[in-house]
Amino acid sequence: MRAAVLHEIGQDKLEVLDDVEAVGFGPGKVKLRIRATGLCHSDVSAMSGVLPQPAPFIPGHEGAGEVLDVGDGVTGLSAGDRVLVCWLPACGACPSCKRGQTQLCLAGFMNAGTPNFKRPGGDVFGFAGTGTFTEEVVVGAGCAVPIPDDVPFEIAALIGCGVTTGLGAAINTAQVEAGSSVAVIGCGGVGISTIQGARVQGAAQIVAVDPVASRREAALRFGATEAVSPDELTDAKQRITAGEGFDYVFEVVGKSATARTAYENTRRGGTLCIVGAGAMDDNFQVNMFELFFDEKRILPSMYGGGDVLRSYERAIALWRAGRIDLESMITHRVRLDGINDALDQMRTGESLRTCVEL
User: Fold this and answer.
1) Hey, CA dihedral for 275, 34, 218, 255, is it positive or negative?
2) What is the Cα–Cα distance from 331 to 244, expressed in whole angstroms?
3) What is the tens place of the pLDDT at every residue in 68-88?
4) How far from chain centre, in Å, is Cα 356?
5) Are strands 15-17 and 3-5 parallel, antiparallel or unpaired?
6) Nearest to 88 by CA among 37, 138, 39, 127
7) In this structure, are residues 83 and 147 in contact, taking their beta carbons and an 8 Å threshold?
8) Among 47, 54, 85, 161, which residue carries the largest CB count within 10 Å?
9) What is the largest CA-CA distance in the chain?
């Protein structure tokens, strides 16, 4: 079967090969035919080594498709079912799951160290235990979540990561209050979803911050009340909040420099929400006096900060009701052979989300 493979960490191009085989099928597993997958910046971060991932590997974790086969012991799924890929499934038995913090379950991460593909030259890993830049993949049954018939594969794929992460940051983690002021730093697919989440919550002012003009223009279409470049943020803060700072600031880049900017633009007693996934050696610093004196809440948000199955259902309900726009987030569509051009478009900020159709 065909798949896009990264041979070594640090390479910026994928090789599309036709000698890849999905392996590992057996009890508790399902084999999926991927129909659509989105490009998420986490894929690029894994390729560059910012996020840990053994190589060679097949990127992709934001996918949807059909069940081809189910292993022994799998219930609730059968061949032909339409599903989205959940890259962080809950085991239901660990301390985090028992506390109701299923987004902190580590079971899915353990899968990342087990190859689920192979080539004539040896084993190949799937990013985050999945790997959706491929025609077929074998995953644990918990990674395959049934979707209603009226949800297109490309929409389901977005809900599998970026939409759930961004909406959840605003709704679950920060719990944005109606009438509040919000700034979102970083307006790719996850940032746009955060903006939509803040709008759903009733924020009065939503300022989108991004260096790319096309992304700022897009943010206005998705609910931002204003869009500024990073060097215009200080002026926006002064105009909108009289210099006090925003009630909520979301960092959706994954770098300490932008996290520091977000902290400085959060009002005293306000909330800084960290959504971007960054590197282990990139340290965010605050001094002990400001930490105490300003009483700003610093809230990381992992995969939307809530039960992902409930979050999927909520995203579908909001989309059906016209409260969020998911179709327009897909700015580019490619086949697998165009994957490298699509990656470049994401790196430059030309695309919000690219759908790879398989």
Assistant:
1) positive
2) 36
3) 999 999 999 999 999 999 999
4) 16
5) antiparallel
6) 127
7) yes
8) 161
9) 63
